[in-house]
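Hi all, posting the design record for the shared folder.

TITLE: backbone redesign
STEP: 1 of 1
STRUCTURE INPUT:
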């Protein structure tokens, strides 16, 4: 009898009898957590990725992207999803792509396994719904160690940094609790520091609306607005505008005011909220009763997976659409009582941005999207443009950092009048400090996120390579070089880097929410653990830079790598040799710095002056 054991998630071996792993079963893991659990326990197994060829991977990516960007457009259900002439399904495209990808990867992976292994017994940890649905018309025995693993959206959980004396950690809290906490923080800041805009000035003077700007990163920009009759309003609906002393000082030393959207609540908006939520509830009831249509929409290769995702998907849609309705009532009120002459965002694919852009378009208000980071411009990412703020849409105009980005947009049929080179306000402070950098013999190792919206960004082998790179780098530095490694975690930690690093070097310094510029300007070399904007930060400060590429995303074809401004490592066998070169070969280090300077001069216009250029541009709309 062929027995297959399918595992997903961290494995608690106390809950699974060891006998299951001693038989001649085919054990297959569906994610890195399960793979890591079995590897640490020295249990022989396969990973689900072994059952996929390149065509299968592309199919997973294409189906996931198509579902996220079109499910809500189906003419048989779209009427239930409209609110204020906006189809609410459109605001969730960014998060739903990775959500559907997880489901589609599981479904096609299970289908491939059944075809190849032809099992008579399937035992499962974390995949109950999938196995049940696949086996309901088959003579396959099933056994389940636990229930189905819930799939959440990316922003269903938030991390709050705790920094008290000797305690430095991230506190993970639910989306609901995060927004309760944010509302309290906004109210307290408004009460104590008087940072909210004057209502009479909102009614009588024109305003510029800045959406979800990080007050630390954009310190120079926010302080660059002169005194004028125009209100500069920061509307941060995700991260608070003020969360520590530095961000508070930025606001107090600027001519900007912070608007908390809940400040616009009144008796009329509350009554409308109750009325509209009741209508939404009725529409969603009708939607969920459209079983035939939903079975048809949520299917792959003739297999409907609606029953698998049904309860989870209904919960997500209900909660997120309720949030959207509540927000949009207040956003509409904002546009009603305020003379907004322009909107500036940096992530027009985000949920909150899409809602505001919708009302700005109704009012014919100019909308601008500021380039926020290094863009992935290699051709393999072009199909993901609907999820990435690379090209303008919904009547937006793009404000880009320099000629490289402008040329890319022109080559993608964006009209020249919809592009303006403005430089990078977030990098003004880097350019100002360019001549003052020093070297304290430290190597900064920076962690970065994966691209979670496609197969390669969710591949167990990519996570394995990431962990291997980190361990090997730390071991090599400790053994061969008289240099001190320090680690900068991404603001949203996705990988347990700390415990891995501490096993190799218990005394290693690990930072997360500290200013990256201060860490960069004093280091000897930067090693970026993936393709990220920190590469540009490092090149501006004339630091020799290495980028490791654990994902197979074709980053080797990005301009900064093609022009030899950094050393890239995409093959594990190359690491030791290239690490030695960047740390010890002065000729290579000097060439990297020179090539980096040349690239930076092409990539960035208005160096040191971008903040003033942008504020002047906005005031002259």
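Okay, here is what came back for every position:
SEQUENCE:
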């Amino acid at each position: 009898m062929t027995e297959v054991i399918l595992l997903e998630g961290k494995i608690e071996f106390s809950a699974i009898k060891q006998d299951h792993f001693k038989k001649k079963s085919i054990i297959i893991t569906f994610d890195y957590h399960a793979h890591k659990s079995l590897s640490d326990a020295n249990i022989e197994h396969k990973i689900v990725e072994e059952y996929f060829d390149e065509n299968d991977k592309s199919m997973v990516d294409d189906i996931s992207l198509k579902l996220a960007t079109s499910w809500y457009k189906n003419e048989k259900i779209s009427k239930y999803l409209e609110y204020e002439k906006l189809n609410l399904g459109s605001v969730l495209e960014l998060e739903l792509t990775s959500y559907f990808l997880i489901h589609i990867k599981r479904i096609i992976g299970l289908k491939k396994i059944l075809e190849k292994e032809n099992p008579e017994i399937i035992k499962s940890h974390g995949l109950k719904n999938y196995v049940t649905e696949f086996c309901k018309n088959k003579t396959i025995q099933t056994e389940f160690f636990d229930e189905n693993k819930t799939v959440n959206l990316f922003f269903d959980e938030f991390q709050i940094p705790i920094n008290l004396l000797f305690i430095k950690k991230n506190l993970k809290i639910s989306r609901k609790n995060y927004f309760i906490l944010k509302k309290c923080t906004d109210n307290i800041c408004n009460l104590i520091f008087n940072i909210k805009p004057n209502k009479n000035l909102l009614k009588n003077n024109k305003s510029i609306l800045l959406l979800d700007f990080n007050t630390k990163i954009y310190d120079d920009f926010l302080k660059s607005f002169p005194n004028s009759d125009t209100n500069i309003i920061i509307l941060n609906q995700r991260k608070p505008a003020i969360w520590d002393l530095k961000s508070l000082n930025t606001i107090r030393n600027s001519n900007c005011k912070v608007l908390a959207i809940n400040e616009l609540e009144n008796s009329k908006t509350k009554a409308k909220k109750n009325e509209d939520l009741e209508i939404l509830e009725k529409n969603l009831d009708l939607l969920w009763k459209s079983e035939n249509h939903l079975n048809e929409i949520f299917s792959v290769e003739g297999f409907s997976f609606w029953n698998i995702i049904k309860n989870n998907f209904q919960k997500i849609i209900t909660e997120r659409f309720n949030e959207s309705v509540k927000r949009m009532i207040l956003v509409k009120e904002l546009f009603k009582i305020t003379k907004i002459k322009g909107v500036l965002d940096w992530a027009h694919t985000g949920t909150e941005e899409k809602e505001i852009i919708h009302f700005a378009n109704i009012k014919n208000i100019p909308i601008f999207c500021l380039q926020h980071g290094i863009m992935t411009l290699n051709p393999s990412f072009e199909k993901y443009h609907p999820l990435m703020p690379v090209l303008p849409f919904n009547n937006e105009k793009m404000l880009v950092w320099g000629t490289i980005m402008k040329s890319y947009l022109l080559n993608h049929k964006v009209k020249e009048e919809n592009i303006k080179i403005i430089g990078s306000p977030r990098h003004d402070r880097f350019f100002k400090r360019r001549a003052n950098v020093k070297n304290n013999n430290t190597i900064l190792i920076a962690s970065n996120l994966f691209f979670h919206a496609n197969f390669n960004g969710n591949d167990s082998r990519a996570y394995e390579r990431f962990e291997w790179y980190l361990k090997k780098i730390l071991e090599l530095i400790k053994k061969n070089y008289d240099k001190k490694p320090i680690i900068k975690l991404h603001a949203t930690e996705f990988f347990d880097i700390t415990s891995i690093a501490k096993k190799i070097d218990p005394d290693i310094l690990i930072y997360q929410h500290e200013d990256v510029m201060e860490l960069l300007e004093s280091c000897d070399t930067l090693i970026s653990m993936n393709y990220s904007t920190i590469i540009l930060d490092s090149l501006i400060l004339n630091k020799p830079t290495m980028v490791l590429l654990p994902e197979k995303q074709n980053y080797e074809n990005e301009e900064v790598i093609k022009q030899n401004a950094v050393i890239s490592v995409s093959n594990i066998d190359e690491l030791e040799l290239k690490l030695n070169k960047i740390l010890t070969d002065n000729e290579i280090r000097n060439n990297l710095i020179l090539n980096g300077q040349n690239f930076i001069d092409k990539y960035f216009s208005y160096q040191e002056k971008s903040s003033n250029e942008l504020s002047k541009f906005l005031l002259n709309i």
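COMMENT: The two ends are 73 Å apart (CA to CA).
Let me know if anyone wants the other runs.
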